[in-house]
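Design job #97: recover the sequence.
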């Protein structure tokens, strides 16, 4: 079994670390928030005084942090203290440029590294069914895969450094755009006197079929466990959707890709967030499209 340092024990990190403990690994954890450390301790994580202490004697280091600046600052703090050959896995969703800088810091210290952001949310983290999108060398991926497995439904090697983050933001750009598209279709159906169920029955087996419709339907009824059935309690909060869409637009600008619908989706989610709905599930944007007073 492996000794794993886990840094960033928030909504995602804590249940992920718990699954590593369940799989028999020794997990040495650290987070800045004492309340998150209390939860980690209850899950069997050995709580350490700081990130550097967590990394000592660890064969693998996993980070699950809010953004690129946090990942780079933690990497700068701990990379020198890790023995050569230690595997660094960053599971945070961050910009591609910071992800590549994190790989460069690891390489400078002769460490193996992969970027491995996830999809599946807090539910997938708790159930151990996350999809991991990994970027990095074949050698690093081969070492990472068995470590990720207890937290994963699927682990995909997407390519070299930064490819995992690239896959994540492309996927979530599709998701943001498609949720708005599905929401607009239901709003139009309402105006035309077509029932939600009738549109669902047709579109779910026609060319309008997509995940936003059939797994995460933004109106209550057709998909009983979608957030629409619990007053849009997340799920996947609109603030996180906006974060990912912004990352997609930064990457589009830096790479010269033309993504007009990605840009429009970013604008709409920015308005939705600015109206105070950042904590609402992202599918709640249908209320905004409908013009509901809320
Ligand atoms: P979170 O805010 O709950 O957790 C982040 C944790 O990092 C916090 O507990 C914070 O205290 C800790 N932290 C920050 N700086 C630190 C440092 N220097 N040292 C140690 N700990 C530090 O966020 P989350 O929801 O767990 O998300 C984590 C990452 O996963 C984000 O990049 C997010 O975009 C991504 N993500 C989240 C979801 C989701 O549904 N929540 C889904 C997919 C991906």
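Job complete. Output follows.
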């Amino acid at each position: 079994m492996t000794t794993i340092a886990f840094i960033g024990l928030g909504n995602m990190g804590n249940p992920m670390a718990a699954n590593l403990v369940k799989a028999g690994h020794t997990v040495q954890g650290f987070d800045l928030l004492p309340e998150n450390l209390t939860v980690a301790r209850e899950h069997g994580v050995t709580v350490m005084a700081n990130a550097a202490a967590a990394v000592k004697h660890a064969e693998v280091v996993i980070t699950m942090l809010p953004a690129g600046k946090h990942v780079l600052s933690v990497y700068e703090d701990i990379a020198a203290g890790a023995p050569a050959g230690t595997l660094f896995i960053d599971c945070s969703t961050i910009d591609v440029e910071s992800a590549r800088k994190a790989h460069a810091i690891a390489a400078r210290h002769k460490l193996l590294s992969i970027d491995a952001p996830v999809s599946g949310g807090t539910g997938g983290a708790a159930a151990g069914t996350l999809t991991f999108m990994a970027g990095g060398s074949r050698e690093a991926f081969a070492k990472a895969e068995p470590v990720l497995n207890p937290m994963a439904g699927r682990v995909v090697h997407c390519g070299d450094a930064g490819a995992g983050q690239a896959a994540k933001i492309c996927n979530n750009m599709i998701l943001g755009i498609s949720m708005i598209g599905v929401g607009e279709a239901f709003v139009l159906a309402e105006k035309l006197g077509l029932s939600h169920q009738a549109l669902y029955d047709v579109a779910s087996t026609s060319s309008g079929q997509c995940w936003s419709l059939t797994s995460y339907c933004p109106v209550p009824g057709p998909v009983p466990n979608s957030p629409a059935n619990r007053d849009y309690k997340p799920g996947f909060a609109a603030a996180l959707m906006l974060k990912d869409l912004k990352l997609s637009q930064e990457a589009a600008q830096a790479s010269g890709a033309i993504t007009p619908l990605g840009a429009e989706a970013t604008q709409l989610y920015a308005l939705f967030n600015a109206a105070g709905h950042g904590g609402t599930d992202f599918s709640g944007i249908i209320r905004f499209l409908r013009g509901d007073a809320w």
